[in-house]
Amino acid sequence: MPQKAWSNKDERQYEHIKESAKKRGKSASRAKEIAAATVNKERRKEGRTQSGKKSTSGSGNPNRSLEDRSKQELYNRAKDLGIEGRSKMDKGELVRAIRKAS
Fold this sequence. Notes:
It is built from four helices and no strands. The chain has helices at about 10-25, 30-45, 70-80, 90-100.
């Protein structure tokens, strides 16, 4: 279901995805879930969400400095870059390794 923080574009994307899911045979409630999750995922990628919960899958807002990101976000970025030994690194080591790999 659309949220107040969504832009007009987000709401249009939500409706489009919801209708597409219905056409593929999903129930109305499941289509709403899929659409909302997709729109919110895009908003997270663009850094347009409030940081109420820790992210487990994102690598952080690319407009923020590495030092301002959480250790989990740094770990995920290091994983994307294929940095070995990342699971044993602390936050400072992750920042240095990411800078070296970039």
